[in-house]
Amino acid sequence: MNITILKAGYCTHLEKMASKQGSWKTVPFPALFALIEHPTQGYILFDTGYSNHVEQSMKQFPYGIYGKMTPIYLNKRESAKEQLEAMGISPVEVKTIILSHFHADHIGGCRDFPEARFICSGKDYGYLQNKTGFSALKNAFIPSLLPEDFTKRVGFIEECPVIVFPLKNSPFTKAYDVFGDQRILTVELPGHTGGQFGLFVRRKDGPLFFVSDACWLSETYKNLSYPNPIASLIMDNWTQYKETIKKIHDFHKLYPEVQIIPTHAMDFFKEKES
Ligand SMILES: [Zn+2]
């Protein structure tokens, strides 16, 4: 399978938030997403990054507060839809979007793909589904980023077949086999949100493990250097969050050949994989 790592905008945060050793200056957090060319399922996206819809939605109360806390920078023609079009891929050719979780930098482009079905955590969606206003904002969720017919187009990861994780000593012991062909596996990475999922895929040059927001920086899982405890304020469960980081760290020690890709890691800013 061809897999291309792309970026659709970035936001800024205090470096101190992501790393105890970090400075008090703001640093960019790229919003990565992945384009996967599956032999029978066609084009698949894992997350969607930012889009103009996010900027628009933040003009509405109370979501402007979200925009103030994490200012967004999106270049012209940088949304997932526009980048795919530049590659010669029409938005209607994207048949599946797998969402790691429902924060705006992951669901920002969902409205741009009218033929896609969505695959996401039923746990997270159930929790957020009826939230609006401040109660949605508290969860960094902007309901208008999802298309109106989202409920008709969604399926839940938890309903996919469960398999034993294919790397036998892995601290992650089970995976969900999204299409039943063992090509696209999702893995539970709780803590950042209650039902966050990562994606494990194989390609010619070796496997990739997209870990979404399970950690923000590569140094976090490489050196087991946890973020500043101040970050616990925005986590669903700080203990689980740290447990998940520890698992990714142990996984990396066991399988250094697997490329681990946190959504906001600067080291993948411009990298393209195939
Ligand atoms: Zn997030």
Topology readout:
Elements (H helix, E strand, L loop, with lengths): L1 E13 H4 L7 E13 L3 E5 L5 H6 L6 H6 L2 E2 L6 H7 L7 E5 L5 H4 L9 E4 L1 H7 L4 H5 L12 H4 E3 L5 E3 L9 E4 L6 E5 L8 E5 L6 E5 L5 H6 L14 H17 L4 E4 L12
Parallel strand pairs: 3-5, 5-6, 6-7, 12-13
Antiparallel strand pairs: 1-2, 1-4, 2-3, 8-9, 9-10, 10-11, 11-12
The structure holds zinc ion.
Q: Would you summarize the structure shown here?
A:
With 274 residues, the protein is α/β, with parallel strands linked by helices. Helices cover 24% and strands 26% of the residues. Helix 5 (104-107) links the parallel strand 5 (94-98) and strand 6.
Please describe what this structure looks like.
This protein has helices at residues 15-18, 52-57, 64-69, 80-86, 104-107, 122-128, 133-137, 150-153, 218-223, 238-254, and strands at residues 2-14, 26-38, 42-46, 72-73, 94-98, 117-120, 154-156, 162-164, 174-177, 184-188, 197-201, 208-212, 259-262. The chain has 274 residues and is of the alpha/beta class. 24% of the residues lie in helices and 26% in strands. It has a single domain (2-268), classed as Ribonuclease Z/Hydroxyacylglutathione hydrolase-like (Metallo-beta-lactamase, Chain A, 4-Layer Sandwich). The chain binds zinc ion. Zinc ion is lined by residues 101, 103, 192, 213.
